[in-house]
Structures are given as structure tokens and as C-alpha cells.
Write a structure and sequence with these properties.
By secondary structure, the protein is α+β, with helices and mostly antiparallel strands. The chain has 3 helices and 6 strands; from the N terminus they run ααββαββββ. The chain has a 6-stranded antiparallel beta sheet. Pfam families: 4HBT (PF03061).
């Protein structure tokens, strides 16, 4: 299975099924599982633990930022053709409340616009009850190979 021959959607679906190895960031960030994967949308489940502590003892804001960059980027990936890549050019995040420790969070990314060279997406970080912890918008440049 050569990832370069797969569309972005096929690659994300293979990642979801465990057919391609998870990237290192998934382990670092406590991304426990991949939920829904469809064209223009992806869901990750993640849990912050002691690895994600800030100097004040709470969950570092980089936890939310990294999860939101990941889901907006992976949502972008689902709309790309085989051999195309992407890179984040802009990520705007709003924190709504402190991130909890040891609580399952649902990170959802959705594509809102696909252009010739740019994809714009949005991401949300919620708990299982739907409480919003952070949201973001991202712009990703399509890398044509």
C-alpha cells in the first residue's frame, strides 16, 4: 500500500483502519482514535494528560492548538487528489475555557472552501456533552507534485 498512490480520503481512511501507521504526533498528543472520516470532514478523539502540562499546572494551550491544526489539516487532506500534499499557512484559534485533564475530547475538522491552491477549514474541540473548549479556522496551501 503506497500512500503516494492514494487520494487524501483513502489515506485518512487507511489511517483510521490501522492500515497505515499513525504519525508520531498522534502518540505525543494522546490521540486515542480516529472517529468519522469522510470527504471534507474528520474526527479525532484525544485526552490531555501530564505530558501536556503548562507551567501553571493546567493543560497547555498548545494541546488545543495542535489538535485543531491536525483536524483542520486532515480534513483538508480528505479533499486532495493522489500525490497532492498540503501545508498550514494560517491557523487562528479561540480558546473558550481551560482544557481538562484525563477527559476524552472530540476534535472535529470540516472543510468550508476548496480553491485551486488553498483549502479553508474549521475545527472544534468539544467534550462528550458538546461543551466547546476551543475552535479554529485554518488555511492550507495545496502542494501540487
Amino acid at each position: 500500500m503506497n500512500p503516494l498512490n492514494m487520494t487524501g480520503l483513502e489515506m485518512m481512511q487507511a489511517f483510521q483502519k490501522g492500515l497505515v501507521p499513525a504519525p508520531g504526533i498522534a502518540k505525543t498528543m494522546g490521540m486515542d482514535e480516529v472517529g468519522d472520516v469522510e470527504y471534507g470532514r474528520i474526527v479525532f478523539i484525544a485526552t490531555a494528560d501530564e505530558r501536556h502540562t503548562n507551567p501553571l499546572g493546567g493543560v497547555h494551550g498548545g494541546f488545543a492548538a495542535t489538535l485543531l491544526d491536525s483536524v483542520t489539516g486532515c480534513a483538508t487532506h480528505t479533499v486532495l487528489a493522489a500525490g497532492e500534499g498540503y501545508g498550514t499557512t494560517d491557523l487562528a484559534i479561540k480558546m473558550c475555557r481551560p482544557m481538562p485533564f484525563n477527559k476524552k475530547l472530540i476534535a472535529e475538522g470540516k472543510v468550508i472552501n476548496v480553491g485551486k491552491n488553498l483549502v479553508i477549514s474549521e475545527g472544534y474541540l468539544r467534550d462528550e456533552n458538546g461543551k466547546l473548549y476551543a475552535h479554529a479556522t485554518a488555511t492550507n496551501m495545496i502542494i501540487h507534485r
